[in-house]
Amino acid sequence: MMKNSKFPSLQYISFSMRHAAGYTGALIFLRLAQALMPAVQILTLAGLLDRAQEAFVARKFTDALYLSIFLFVGFILLDTVLNIISSYVRMKYEIKIGMEYDRSLLMKKSRLIYYLTEDQNTQELVSRLSEESAERMAKGLQNLLDLFEYGIRIAGVAVIVLTAHVGIGLAVMAIFAIMLPVAKKCGEEDYEAYTEADKQMRKAAYLQQVLGHRDYADERKTFAYTDKINEKWELQHDKGRKMSQAVTKKNFIHIKAASMLTVMLAVSAAALLLFPLRKGMMTVGGYVSIVTAIINLTKLMSWNLAYIIEDFTVCKEYIMDLLTFWQLPEIETDEKGKIMQSSREKIEKIVFQKVSFRYPGCENYVLKDMSFTLEKGNTYAIVGENGAGKTTLIKLLLGLYREYEGEIYINGREIRQIGESELFSYFSVAYQHFPRYEMSLRDNLVLGRADARGVSDEEIRKWVGLLGLTDCVKRLPAGLDTEIGRLEEAGQDLSGGEWQRVAVARALLVDGPIQIMDEPTAALDPIHESELFEKLISGETGDLHILITHRLGGIRNASEILVVQDGRIGECGTHEELLQKHGLYAEMFEKQKRWYV
Ligand code: ADP
């Protein structure tokens, strides 16, 4: 875990070291060597010019002149070679960091505690971090090294100028001090605007998706809303674009003003240095090499340094985001993100004891003092009106939220004492909002299995048959190995009902001892629906079955029906018992019955 530090940008070095230690070390060393080059240039050039002048006066080539020519040529060669090696190492570093950093971001994302995946701020943070993540990590390190390099370059030249003329040396440093806060402010404004513009752009991107994606095609046509959404998109896009343009313009003006100052410094330095030259306090070679170095340096300051300092602030904001992300709570087990073989433990009992729960950051309790017991061998149906808390109850049982009051026991063990992977291994779950994986049908079916590659065709076909998908598999050109979904050619997509049966089969193939089905028949036609209910209730797999549904006709044979009402179990019993009670269940059942008679 990373600690927040006083100089967050230094974390670019530790992140880079962690993912590409060799290349990062080499880059730091090379930059240090490159940073010393201007000072070396002044010394070798001054020596060369002075020796050349002496040779000119004496009209003969001296050994000292040969030596200074040798040193100066050596300097140019070394500078060129350092540049080439530096670019090569940089390229290798970027490739390495591209893979490693993205992988560690992904790992962290997968380990985040569940409620954060539903939290808007976290989602925005993750989206900001993931965009061009590797490039931004590499840019952050380069930026830091640029700053080190330029700092040393400036200091090197400043020291040499200071020895020639104290006032001019100080002026060089003063300009650096003036530019620093201006560029820093620009950088901060830039990042804020970038964050805001990014938000606007993401909204625009969503609208663009509504305008183009196949998922929206039917309603887009029948409701003819293209013009309306287009208008919204244009407004949204314009808003984001204008925001970033305004900041870029402002920064350009700031930076140009600062660079004018540095050009003035170069001119005045050249003029001022004439005085020590005339007084014989410095040689002609010294004068020419120092003025050349100052001109090079001011060019660097006016064109590069301002942008580098501005980028520094932008990179700092990125690393601060990264540090915040890195400190987000993770799931607590040792086996993070691993699929475990389904548990072979027999499930005897699940007990909810006075469980109360509210979502993080919410005031109202969704579950209130909820108590009930589920026992082995039975099929339980959970029913209730929308928003009553049925799905929340399942999320707690799955351990997705652990901040509840009261206790939840599986076989006498409180689930907070059970590691996440072990807990998951007890369940086969089909979610109400199931995903459609754009992969082969086989992958769609075995995705939840730890031994996905080893699942036999025979086993798959058993479940495919049970869920009435055999004809569907026959229709597909490559059978189970057909790539399905919308990315594929037309005709290889499944119907809504087929997708749902695939999701149920995927859950059943996991073969966990506790089976949970959340609205497993919502997309099915009545024939397939009643067949599926029969199979789920007869419970061919697992020790204990939980069915959440609105379709009351399908659960008449459930062992027990729990009616969730306002966060509590309002009533429970068999279908007949509940009808006798004339409570909410009886009312809901009568209403649904009236559709059919
Ligand atoms: P049901 O499954 O019975 O329709 P849920 O368990 O999904 O009901 O929801 C119960 C209540 O909890 C609802 O009022 C819903 O708005 C609220 N809720 C559900 N999920 C969240 C969440 N992630 N954050 C805040 N409130 C939520």
Structure overview:
It is a single chain. The chain has 597 residues and is of the alpha/beta class. Helix content is 62%, strand content 10%. The chain is built from 19 helices and ten strands. The strands form two sheets. The protein has a six-stranded mixed β-sheet, sandwiched between helices. The protein has a four-stranded antiparallel β-sheet with strand order 2-1-4-5, covered by helices on one side. Helix 17 (526-538) links the parallel strand 7 (514-518) and strand 8 (544-548). Helix 3 (63-111) packs antiparallel against helix 5. The longest helix has 49 residues, at 63-111. It is elongated, with a radius of gyration of 35 Å. The two termini are 63 Å apart. 30% of the residues are buried. The site of adenosine-5'-diphosphate has 12 residues, from helix 11.
Helix content: 55-70%
Determine the N-to-C terminus distance. Answer: 63 Å
- Mean pLDDT, as a whole number? 84
Backbone CA Rg: 35 Å
Residue ranges: pLDDT <50 for 5 or more in a row?
A: none
Summarize the main sheet.
Answer: 6 strands, mixed
Strand content: 5-15%
Structural class: alpha/beta
Classify the oligomer. Answer: single chain
List keywords for this structure.
single chain, 597 residues, alpha/beta, six-stranded mixed beta sheet, four-stranded antiparallel beta sheet, 10 strands, 10% strand, binds adenosine-5'-diphosphate
Give a brief outline of the structure.
Helices cover 62% and strands 10% of the residues. By secondary structure, it is of the alpha/beta class.
Layout of helices and strands, plus pairs?
Elements: H1 11-35, H2 37-58, H3 63-111, H4 120-130, H5 133-164, H6 166-212, H7 217-223, H8 226-272, H9 274-278, H10 284-326, E1 349-357, E2 367-375, E3 379-384, H11 390-397, E4 405-410, E5 413-414, H12 420-424, E6 427-430, H13 441-446, H14 457-466, H15 470-475, H16 496-510, E7 514-518, H17 526-538, E8 544-548, E9 560-565, E10 568-573, H18 575-581, H19 584-596
Parallel strand pairs: 3-8, 3-9, 6-7, 7-8
Antiparallel strand pairs: 1-2, 1-4, 4-5, 9-10
Helix pairs in contact: 1-3, 1-5, 2-3, 2-5, 2-10, 3-5, 4-10, 5-6, 5-10, 6-8, 6-10, 8-10, 14-16, 18-19
Bound molecules: adenosine-5'-diphosphate.
